[in-house]
Every structure is written in C-alpha cells, then in structure tokens.
Specification:
The chain has helices at 24-34, 94-110, 124-127, 146-151, 160-167, 183-193, 207-220, 230-245, and strands spanning 9-14, 44-46, 52-54, 72-77, 115-118. The chain is α/β, with parallel strands linked by helices. A 5-stranded mixed β-sheet has the order 3-2-4-1-5. A hairpin with a 5-residue loop joins β2 and β3 (52-54).
Length: 246
C-alpha cells in the first residue's frame, strides 16, 4: 500500500452507517471492498463508544476524498445516518466527539502541516471536477461544519480556496493525473459500480476503459466517443446521486 509523502489536510467523515451499526474497521472494510475498493477507505475510524481504531493505516494513502487522498488523513465517525435514512448529526455520540477532538490534537502534533476540514468542504460541487464518491452521502458528510468546529477549539483549519489551487482540476478538463489516486481512477470506479467491466482500476484510459465508456454512453443516449467528457461524467454522477438518495 502506498504511503503519503506529506500530510497537509485532515478530512473528517462519517461512515454513513445506520443507528446501531457497530462492526468496527472490519465491517467498514467489508463494505468498501464490496463496493470495489481494495481496502477500507479511511485511515482511522471512531467507533460509536468513542474508541478510535486505525483503518487503512496512519501513513497509508487512503481512498476517502477524490483528488486529495495523497496529501490527506481521513478520520471517520461511525454513524451519520438516522432511522429515516437521512444524514443526521445527532447520530454522533458525545464520546465520539470527545475522541475526535483528542485525535485531531494528536494528529496535529504528529503532522505539523495538517489543516482540518470536513468531507463536504471538498465537495465536487465546489470545484466542478465532476467526481463524487460512490460510497457515501457526499453532500452531507460529515453532517456538521468541521471548519468552525475545529477553529473554535484552536485547531488549524483548511483554507479551502488555497487548497484547491494546489490540486484542483479545471472544470471539464481532460484527466491530467494518472495512477490510482486520480480523477480517472474515480471515474473508472464509477463505471465499475455501474456494472461495466474495465479490468484493473489503474487511472489510465486504455482500451477497456474506452470500451466501457462507449457502452455506458450507448446506454445513456450519449454520443459514443469513448471519452470521459463532461456529459459522460455528468451522467455517471447523476446515476450515483440518484442511488444515494434512495
Ligand atoms: Zn466522507
């Protein structure tokens, strides 16, 4: 598993699991693997009883926030979804929030350049790069505003605009990164989740990815270019936003 060379961003998540779900890292790993990921996406989770548990690993490059995995630590609170299936901050226990604050302080000591934010602060709606994460309720995660919460506790917080300057892709741009931590890899995962077989998720648009993209375009009534163009990315997003709302 690849390791981060720097850690400049700390991203708080919820696991988007329902009330009473309490199966720890092993359970989240099983969910993420069933969704086509190689391992649990988060570096660490905080269980409902407030117990912190290392997930993918402290220095591992996680899979928790599109475009930022190689520079960020993903810390996820187990819960986030209420009995009606809606994102709900009240599902997070006081014990979890106490541990969250403690772990954010400890991680800030371990990674002096870290700045904190919530997953939704990095929503693709904010940079227009056309990526959503398929495994959670992107717009809600982590159900509260981490930046003011962290700032009120004296923790360093992310300047999201400054962050985007470093890694954001221009809206509707062609993929410019290659490798597993890339826009292309996320789009390949979405294609895979949509049922198209593309072989290994490698972040490279090869013959299989082009063929899968053409098949998806055919099924979606789009021009069969085989390219992950803006209309195709939008159609992929719509598919998963619709299923996330269900
Ligand atoms: Zn999240």
């Amino acid at each position: 598993m690849a390791s981060r060379k720097k850690t400049t961003l700390g991203v708080v998540h919820v696991t988007a699991t329902p009330p009473g779900w309490d199966r720890g890292v092993a359970g989240i790993r099983a969910i993420h693997k069933a969704q086509g990921w190689s391992d649990i996406g988060y570096n660490e989770i905080i269980n409902p009883d407030g117990r912190a548990e290392i997930g993918r690993g402290k220095m591992a490059i996680g899979a928790h926030v599109a475009g930022f995995n190689s520079i960020s630590y993903g810390l996820s609170l187990v819960g986030g979804i209420n009995r009606d299936g809606k994102p709900d901050f009240s599902t997070i226990s006081a014990a979890q929030l106490a541990t969250l604050e403690r772990r954010m302080r400890e991680l800030t000591r371990d990674f002096p350049d870290i700045k904190w934010c919530g997953h939704r602060d990095l929503s693709p709606d904010k940079n227009g790069n056309g990526i959503i994460e398929p495994f959670e309720h992107m717009k809600a995660c982590p159900t509260f505003d981490v930046i003011p919460w962290a700032a009120a506790r004296g923790l360093p917080t992310a300047d999201i605009k400054g962050t985007w300057k470093i890694v954001a892709l221009a809206p509707n741009s062609a993929p410019v990164f290659e490798g597993p931590d890339s826009r292309t890899a996320y789009l390949q995962r979405l294609l895979t989740r949509a049922g198209y077989v593309i072989g290994p998720i490698d972040g490279i648009v090869g013959k299989k990815t082009r063929a899968a993209t053409q098949a998806f375009q055919l099924a979606s009534g789009l021009p069969e270019t085989g390219a992950l163009d803006a209309a195709t990315v939008a159609a992929l997003r719509n598919l998963f936003e619709a299923s996330a709302a269900a």
